Recover the amino acids of this structure.
């Protein structure tokens, strides 16, 4: 893979993990996709923690790939 599109400037490893694997930044549990918005070159995916006692949320920004059907 070419990872040239990911901006890692000041993002902590904790948040990188969330972005890559969809894990809660608060507790590390798997997150559920609750909304998805395609806008221009990017798709924004809103995630919420699957644990009912956790408030973890994450907005994931993914570049729309023109090279694969994923
Ligand atoms: Zn959580």
């Amino acid at each position: 893979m070419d990872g040239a599109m990911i901006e890692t400037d000041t993002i902590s490893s904790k948040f990188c993990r969330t972005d890559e694997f969809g894990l809660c930044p608060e507790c590390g549990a798997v997150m559920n996709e609750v909304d998805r918005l395609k806008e221009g070159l990017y798709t924004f995916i809103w995630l919420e923690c699957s644990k009912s006692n956790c408030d973890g949320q994450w907005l994931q920004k993914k570049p729309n790939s023109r090279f694969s059907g994923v």
